[in-house]
């Protein structure tokens, strides 16, 4: 996951390959609640691991459910409808799929068994309506107290007393704001069917009906057959009891599939994008996004648990669509609309306004930053095709779907953007709500425009702090890291192992071309042997400098270094990053410090690691190494003509980082 402040997406020109989707959020949290209310143990396979499921799991544990992980399966032992804790405070983040059903279930349990629970979330959750559900629970006779603004969380359910509930009454609930209110009642009210059937009637037109189908389908898996008449009237039979199905599989998230369906439609030019985990047999309503994508031009094939998507019509075709049945996935259509031949109008999307953010306003604002013409209304949005693209910084409003949808703007070169534009996604970690590895999945499928993956090159003499600076910059930018010195060091170690003389250029080069070198986190392996410690020894640095004078060795390691240049970007440190290996790097830094400072730093570094060292001989060695690096015939150590010079003798590490990030930012189009 990218925990950086922002993530710059270079322009991409095609996509191909396979993505395995994480589990559906909607199914995961419903299954967890049902397993938590049922008696016995339910083994849940392929559960989504994300922010929203984590808050549900924490809540269930707080309430007394037992959770046990077994590889990718989760064993949930439920309460059997009996409260084990009568008093708890539950924090539910921004998870509507946890807040609404838990409010209903705990209101009913607290009222009938005596208990009191407080449910709260993040600030945005406290702006998301829940009043219609609270009204329905109060009709039933459940005590519910507003702890903030009436009609919104935080709430207290129960008052520690026991109450007879009016289950004989028909419970009325509004269906036109969020279908989660009805889902919450359907999941909770089997708890109070002992005396007779419980009837729920929906006031107004029910939105997002497919989500109700998921709820009814999962209730059936847990032994509860709800009688439904026209999505208006729902009857829970007398004596309903949650019965664990024993084991249950969570299918891939159909809303998350929408980004990859769109990717295939836009950029699956020679090869398809294959999506695994969700297919035409999906029980989630958002699978019908596929029909909308097809209407825009996507060529889709599929089967049970898989889809393959290629570009069909190009440019895409603008559409007008009532999106009531696919409220979440419909956001993806708004971004696909930029690549269409005519305007796209998405109707009946009022629910966007009460999601993680006001998604109609957010979508309109961010698409306009890219240059688009957008019209927004109370419950619709119209997006015009985009001809004159602009690089933009996309604000994501702590909304995972804003980040994932808008990432598709990085394919702008396909719509003729000249020059192709970089798209900056702010707060990329917001995708953790449903798809923590989204950007890794995206990068594994897309092919960047040639030369578009940016490189930040840092060269300089020994112990100037290149590695320290490069590591920090890579972390803050979310970029890959190339410690090119490590390749020369590993070559030297491999030569020592193989008994190859350090002046035998051709033999060293033949070996360097076939190095079996693996980087795993901070550890380095050569031919399967861990060399993390010997790699960093000063003596190895000295040998590396002898190895590196041979042009054949440098040539042999060249392609290996180029291979590190992968999306979203690279920070590379060494001696010739800016001059030879990445001459087109948009920022080259030549880092220096006085020999005295460098010897003192290296001395401290070695002592801190528990090695013995002598500062005078260290200085002699590093000056000798620098002299060899500067005076060799090929790729000598020197600043590139267009390098920024940074003498950090008097700078802290953080000062150096800030200075380089400033230079980096000055080169961005935002
Ligand atoms: N600006 C700085 N101020 C003080 N200490 C620094 C600074 N930059 C780096 N250091 C310290 O100097 C030591 C050497 O830094 P580092 O290993 O990053 O250098 P390097 O240039 O990558 O060396 P080499 O070329 O040998 O790989 C480290 O202990 C690091 O913490
Ligand atoms: N791009 C590079 C990187 C390193 N070298 C040589 O390797 C030696 C060790 O490098 P460290 O950065 O790990 O200390 C270095 O002294 C150079 O001789 C190189 O030539 N080119």
UniProtKB/TrEMBL annotation:
The active site is at residue 328. Residues 16-442 form the Enolpyruvate transferase domain. It is found in: Cytoplasm. GO terms for molecular function: 3-phosphoshikimate 1-carboxyvinyltransferase activity; kinase activity. SUPFAM superfamilies: EPT/RTPC-like (SSF55205), P-loop containing nucleoside triphosphate hydrolases (SSF52540). Residues 457-663 form the Cytidylate kinase domain. Catalyzes the transfer of the enolpyruvyl moiety of phosphoenolpyruvate (PEP) to the 5-hydroxyl of shikimate-3-phosphate (S3P) to produce enolpyruvyl shikimate-3-phosphate and inorganic phosphate. 3-phosphoshikimate binds at residues 25-26, 30, 178-180, 208, 328, 355. NCBIfam families: aroA, cmk, PRK11860.1. This is Multifunctional fusion protein. Monomer. Keywords: Amino-acid biosynthesis, Aromatic amino acid biosynthesis, ATP-binding, Cytoplasm, Kinase, Nucleotide-binding, Transferase. Its main location: cytoplasm. Belongs to the EPSP synthase family. Belongs to the cytidylate kinase family. Type 1 subfamily. ATP binds at residues 460-468. It catalyses: 3-phosphoshikimate + phosphoenolpyruvate = 5-O-(1-carboxyvinyl)-3-phosphoshikimate + phosphate; CMP + ATP = CDP + ADP; dCMP + ATP = dCDP + ADP. The gene is cmk. Its EC number is 2.5.1.19, 2.7.4.25. Phosphoenolpyruvate binds at residues 25, 96, 128, 180, 359, 401, 433. Pathway: Metabolic intermediate biosynthesis; chorismate biosynthesis; chorismate from D-erythrose 4-phosphate and phosphoenolpyruvate: step 6/7. Gene3D superfamilies: Enolpyruvate transferase domain, P-loop containing nucleotide triphosphate hydrolases. InterPro entries: Cytidylate_kin, Cytidylate_kinase_dom, Enolpyruvate_Tfrase_dom, Enolpyruvate_Tfrase_sf, EPSP_synthase, EPSP_synthase_CS, P-loop_NTPase, RNA3'P_cycl/enolpyr_Trfase_a/b.
């Amino acid at each position: 996951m990218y925990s950086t402040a922002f993530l710059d997406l270079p322009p991409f020109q095609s996509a191909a390959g396979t993505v395995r989707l994480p589990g559906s959020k909607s199914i995961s949290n419903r299954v967890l609640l049902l397993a938590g209310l049922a008696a016995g143990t339910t083994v849940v396979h392929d559960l989504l691991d994300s922010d929203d499921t984590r808050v549900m799991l924490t809540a269930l544990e707080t309430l007394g459910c037992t959770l046990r992980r077994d590889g990718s399966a989760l064993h949930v032992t439920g309460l059997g409808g009996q409260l084990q804790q009568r008093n708890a405070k539950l924090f539910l983040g921004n998870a509507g799929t946890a807040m609404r059903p838990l409010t209903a279930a705990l209101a009913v349990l607290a009222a009938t068994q005596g208990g009191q629970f407080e449910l709260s979330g993040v600030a945005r959750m406290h702006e998301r309506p829940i009043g219609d559900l609270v009204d329905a629970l109060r009709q039933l006779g459940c005590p519910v107290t507003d702890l903030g603004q009436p009609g919104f969380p935080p709430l207290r359910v129960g008052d520690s007393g026991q109450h007879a509930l009016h289950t004989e009454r028909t419970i009325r609930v509004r269906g036109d704001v969020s279908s989660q209110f009805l889902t919450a009642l359907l999941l909770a009210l089997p708890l109070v069917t002992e005396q007779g059937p419980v009837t729920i009637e929906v006031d107004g037109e029910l939105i997002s009906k497919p989500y109700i189908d998921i709820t009814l389908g999962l209730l059936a898996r847990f032994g509860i057959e709800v009688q439904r008449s026209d999505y208006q009237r729902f009857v829970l039979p007398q004596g309903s009891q949650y019965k664990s199905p024993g084991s249950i599989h969570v299918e891939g998230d159909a809303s998350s599939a929408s980004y990859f369906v769109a990717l295939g439609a836009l950029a699956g030019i020679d090869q398809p994008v294959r999506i695994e985990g969700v297919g035409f047999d999906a029980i989630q309503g958002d699978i019908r996004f596929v029909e909308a994508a097809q209407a825009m031009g996507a060529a889709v094939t599929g089967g049970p648990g898989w889809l393959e998507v290629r570009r069909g019509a190009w440019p895409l075709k603008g559409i007008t669509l009532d999106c009531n049945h696919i409220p979440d996935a419909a956001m993806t259509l708004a971004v696909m609309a930029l690549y269409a031949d005519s305007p796209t109008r998405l109707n009946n999307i009022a629910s966007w306004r009460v999601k993680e953010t006001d998604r109609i306003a957010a979508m309109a604002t961010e698409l306009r930053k890219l240059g688009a013409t957008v019209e927004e209304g109370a419950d619709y949005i119209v997006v015009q095709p985009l001809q004159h693209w602009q690089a933009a910084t996309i604000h994501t409003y702590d909304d995972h779907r804003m980040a994932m949808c808008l990432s598709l703007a990085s394919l702008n070169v396909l719509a003729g953007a000249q020059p192709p534009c970089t798209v900056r996604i702010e707060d990329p970690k917001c995708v953790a709500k449903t798809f923590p590895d989204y950007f890794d999945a995206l990068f594994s499928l897309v092919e960047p425009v040639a030369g578009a993956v940016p490189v930040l090159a840092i060269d300089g003499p020994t112990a100037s702090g290149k590695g320290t600076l490069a590591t920090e910059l890579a972390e803050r930018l979310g970029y890959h890291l190339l410690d090119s010195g490590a390749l020369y060091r590993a070559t030297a170690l491999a030569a020592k192992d193989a008994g190859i003389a350090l002046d035998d250029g051709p033999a060293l080069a033949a070996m360097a071309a076939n190095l079996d070198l693996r980087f795993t986190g901070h550890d380095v392996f050569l031919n399967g042997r861990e060399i993390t410690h010997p790699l960093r020894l000063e003596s190895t640095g000295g040998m590396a400098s002898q190895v590196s004078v041979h042009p054949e060795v440098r040539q042999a390691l060249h392609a290996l270094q180029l291979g590190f240049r992968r999306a979203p970007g690279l920070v590379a440190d060494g001696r010739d990053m800016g001059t030879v290996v990445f001459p087109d790097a948009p920022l080259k830094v030549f880092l220096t410090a006085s020999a005295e400072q460098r010897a003192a730093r290296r001395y401290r570094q070695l002592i801190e690691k528990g090695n013995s060292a002598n500062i005078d001989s260290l200085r002699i060695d590093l000056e000798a190494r620098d002299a060899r690096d500067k005076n060799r015939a090929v790729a000598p150590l020197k600043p590139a003509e267009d390098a920024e010079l940074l003498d950090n003798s008097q700078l802290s590490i953080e000062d150096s980082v800030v200075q380089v990030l400033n230079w980096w930012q000055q080169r961005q189009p935002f």
